[in-house]
Amino acid sequence: MLPNLYPADELAMIRAHKRRLEDRERQLREGYLSGRLNPVGYEATVELKTTRQRVLRKDRLPDVIKNDPSYWDDRVVTSVVLRKIGTRGPIPQGAADPDRSAWGRGDRGS
To answer: Which of 2, 21, 39, 98 has the most neighbouring CB atoms within 10 Å?
Structure first.
């Protein structure tokens, strides 16, 4: 909570900040998907991961045959996956690293 700020104002500020962060994430994602950005950083690397997903085409599926596989399609989805260097798994969203400050600078200074 920020001092001397009404909760409603704080919420408005948080939501505005969240929108700015989401816009920046969208720009970065587009840069990675287009190949314009370097995927290697100091503490993380970005990979493009392509997966297939089954998608139910409900508009063509009568109620009596909902489980008929002929009414399913596969779609290709490409995800931007962030991985911490030196580990195999993805970095969980919202995970805090106890060795780094709240702003993500660690001991590299301000």
So the answer is: 39
- What pTM value is reported for the model? 0.53
Those residues whose C-beta lies under 8 Å from the C-beta of residue 46, and which sit 6 or more positions away, are 32, 37, 39, 40, 80, 81, 82, 83
Model confidence pLDDT, tens digit, residues 33-84:
999 999 999 999 999 999 999 987 888 878 777 777 787 789 999 887 767 7
Q: Compare 92 and 78 and report the one with higher pLDDT.
A: 78
Q: What is the rounded end-to-end Cα distance, in angstroms, of the chain?
A: 22
Closest CA to 33 of 85, 78, 82, 76: 78
What angle is formed at CA 97 by the lines to CA 29 and CA 80, rounded to 5 degrees?
15
